[in-house]
Specification:
The complex is a heterodimer of chains A (251) and B (267). With 251 residues, chain A is of the alpha/beta class. Chain A has helices at residues 46-53, 78-84, 100-110, 116-129, 145-157, 175-190, 202-208, 226-231, 236-247; strands at 8-17, 20-30, 35-39, 61-66, 69-70, 85-88, 163-167, 194-198, 211-216, 219-224. In chain A, strand 9 (211-216) and strand 10 (219-224) form a beta hairpin. Chain B has a two-stranded antiparallel sheet. Chain B has helices at 7-15, 19-50, 55-70, 73-88, 106-132, 136-144, 149-179, 191-202, 205-237, 245-253, and strands at residues 96-98, 103-105. Chain B has 10 helices and 2 strands, in the order ααααββαααααα. Classes of the chains: A alpha/beta (251), B mainly alpha (267). Chain A binds chain B through residues 54, 56, 78-80, 82-83, 85-87, 89, 91, 93-99, 102, 106-107, 110-112, 139, 141, 152, 155-156, 159, and chain B through 135, 137-138, 140-148, 151, 155-156, 159-160, 237-239, 242-243.
Chain lengths: 251, 267
Amino acid sequence: MNANGHFVSLQGVTKRFGDLEVLHDINLDVSEHNVVCLIGASGSGKSTLLRCINLLEQVDAGSIVVDGQPITGTKVDVNQLRQKIGIVFQAYNLFPHMTVLQNVTLAPRKALGISRDKAEAHARALLRQIGLEEKSDEFPDRLSGGQQQRVAIVRALATGPKLMLLDEITSALDPQLIGEVLELVRELAQSGMTMILATHEMSFAREVAHKVCFLDAGVIHEEGPPEQVLSAPQEERTREFLARVLEGGRL
Amino acid sequence: MLASVDWHVVWVRVAHPDHAFFIALTRTVYIAVIAQIMGVILGLLAALMRMSKLRILRVLSGIYVWIFRGTPLLVQIFFVYLASNQLLGFTLIPNSLNGGFFKLDGAIFAGILALGVNEGAYMREIVRAGIDSIDKGQMEAATSLGMRYGLAMRRIVLPQAARVIIPPLGNEFNNMLKNTSLLFTIGVYEMFADAEIGYSNSFQPTEYFLGVAFWYLVLTTVWTFIQAGIERKLAASERGEELSFRERWQAAWNPARGGIFMRSPSR
């Protein structure tokens, strides 16, 4: 836990790709067991923000502290940090040449050094919880998109992370498959997992989030409890964005 | 014309070659195999260097490919055999290598080295194309699970890249089998040397070169079948049991696990 009581704390985080500043002076605090939703149009910097927290991208300025440890310095054990943080991607990124069980057990076995028996028992238990135990020996391409994404979530959970980053995990799914994935995320939230979600699912954000942040052009323009940001936004940009989403029929 | 060809000699060269020829054939095969393995290892190293964050490694990899693809293989062979000791100031190429149970002629050693190093330059591009063909998300997913770069490369990226690498690798080995004939020029007694010496003793070029061409064709044809088997096996193991990169190769070569000439049962 951080000194100021936040599990994740970003101070003045700035990220550039060449001349393009994709994140500008981002300040964000996430308390333990809280869920923070990042909303905003595509290209607003939501994904980049998540990727910075996992060090898949290096920040150009500012600092990030996770679980009391600064991660933006030079002497950071990236692999150790990443074992504390699970990330789930929009495109699932399951390993296609491995079965579901191998996907879930590989990192615990090879990165954490857990024995095969233990890792498999744990993986099966997790898969049972999401009702996919009978798919253990299937290859990812035999599963539906929703099932694949649920396996990806379980894979990220298998290393015992304290923080989950979910990067638009339902954006690539058919509408009828979104529900099962959100249900799993809902359960995770209820179990007290600290999470940061980039999402376009506004009603879901309203339901699970403790805090909603609206990003536009790399800047957090508005943040607050979901009922405030989503129902009574203060900023003109937020209102415009939500109006567009509403037209799209997603609210 | 055709009538002047001694078809009996051709028949003997094709169907009943002498003991010396079989030694030469064996030599051709093992030189090609060792040089190709060397080429794959060097190519993999150079490809990883090419993708390194360290500029110096990228530059070294570039210079390596630049030189060895930009100069004739024959020049490289002569250079390694005759010039490298003088240039380096120490004995890279001994007169003969004595490894106890096997003895290796210095020329063969030099030949394998030259072919292998040359091949590595071509394999670098093949390996890199294979690695590039794998979605970046795979490496990101692996490293974000706490796997180190090397582990992620070995368990996640390379096994998937292998499917892309194997077909051109097979073509490279086909070339390698034939390129070993260049080693005749530094005095390696391989298949072509056997034919050349037979010809100069008998002045029967058609007979001897037709015979040796037949045997090169046999080698490359056998290889084509082996290659097809490996490719089928790799495609099948995409959806078979758990296989690491090493296990895949074992499976491809081990008859008890399906062997290379047996189709895996379709699912």
